[in-house]
Description:
The complex is a heterodimer. By secondary structure, chain A is of the alpha+beta class.
Amino acid sequence: MPFEDSITELLREAADLAPETPGELLADSGERRGRRRVARRRAAVAGGVAVLAVAGLAVGQLRPGSAPATPASQQSTAAAPQSALATLLPLLPPGRTSDQNPLDHVTGPGPAAKLTFDDGHGATLLQLSTATVGLPLGDDTEGTHCSDPFMVPTEGCTRTVRPDGSILVIDKSAATPTNPVKTWHAVYTGTDGRQVRLDESNSRTMTPPATRADPALSADQLTAVVTSGSWDQLVDAARPVSAPSSGQASPKAPQPADILAGADRLLPAGVQHDNGSTPQLTAGEAHLTVTAAGRSSVLLITVDPHLGQGAGDPRKAFESQAQPGQQLTRAVNGGSSVITSTADVTTGGGTPATRWTVQVMQPDGTGVTINETNGTNGYDIQGGTPALTIDQLTAIATNPSWQQH
Amino acid sequence: MGRRLVRTAYLLNGGDAHLAEDLAQETLGRIYSKWRRISRMENPAGYAQTVLFHTFLSHRRRRASTEQVTDRFAETAVSDPDPALRLTLLRALGQLPVQDRAVLVLRFWEDRSVEETAAVLRLSASGVRSRSSRALDRLRAVLGDQLDELPRP
């Protein structure tokens, strides 16, 4: 095989290691950044002062009853993303840092930083990110719960509600037989809506090879970083330039129990299912194990009532996601748009695994995605033919009962 | 489209998952405000890929002037003991000059012609050819005899 062909083949294999970021997540955060770009550009046209005024206003709006917002002019310099790196460095235990990266084109959700830290026992990748969440903090506030151990191999997780109502989550993912890399993180969500998160990996890249047995920072050291008062100025300055749209008017993502109840109604006769014993806490998402014809598979069902919202033509945007090798059925006569794929994916350990996916945009814009994989959990994916066929998955995902009325 | 963007971004960033997601999100953010116009294009996904390459290069250019000198090269030597060839490739990609990397990913992952690659990266066709051959030489030097492990299509 000519060298060029080998490279093409190898690039394809390497691309399989890319993170499986859910499309909806990517689109949401892309849209947030886009809105911020538009807001910044408009403000810049109106005059440099305007953007600061809006920032000051947003702080006031987001913190009802709090002390008057700091004059905007004092905040302007703190918004530079470099500050996340500069703020992080003095908070770290003694050690050598390298590959410092301020992630300077991150404009949302908030300033971030990334670096390699070495305490003398091997490199640890550190990734710091900040965000602002809506108030009041609630059960559905993102980042305030432990990972679902069904979906992520876990070494342990603690969730602490502190006396002032702020929430600290320390979550440690475990190594698996095929992946020696652990990612531990601490997320602090303050009652002012701040979220400071520090991720660490016993690897340089979050992918194999591992550089040491565990990441370098202990739970206490992670906690000290994310709860530090040093983030105050940065977090204040990075609040959204426009108040986040209130979720009151639009439908909320369904709770996992509602999704499981929906699946219960829609699964074909004769299919056994088991919702598992771990609590499912992620709004808009649920998983269950189905058994049919002696085969067991894991279904991950995601329901997004907002998929049809957004600028431009969301349906066209949805349909353009279809890649070569995927099957696209365009909406006809007011029906659903459907993208299906049956893929042999390669997991980090190099074993071939099977993932079948049906993505649907229903006529009213509701998005339903069902992933089907083999195995006994959501991360250790096996090969072979899954329990439900693509047609059966499609019938479930296109059912109008997922729409909220 | 999103999945494809992340995969391309992952290759461009030499296998850095965090930077890849960041680049894909930034790309979507850049096309967000123009979506009405873009969605009428014949190939919106292709346009998004082009924006991704421009975002990658402009970000890298900006960072190159402020980046602190580190010992990265010394610590990730090419005599990589990791047996997984694709990890070796990702690491080798990460050490190529950014424009060479972009050329390589466009030519051999995106399957674009020399002329298309030149148009996306605003280079001359001969510039694309020389960067492509230089990048392939570097990869050949790193991957060399390990290439026999590749599955034959």
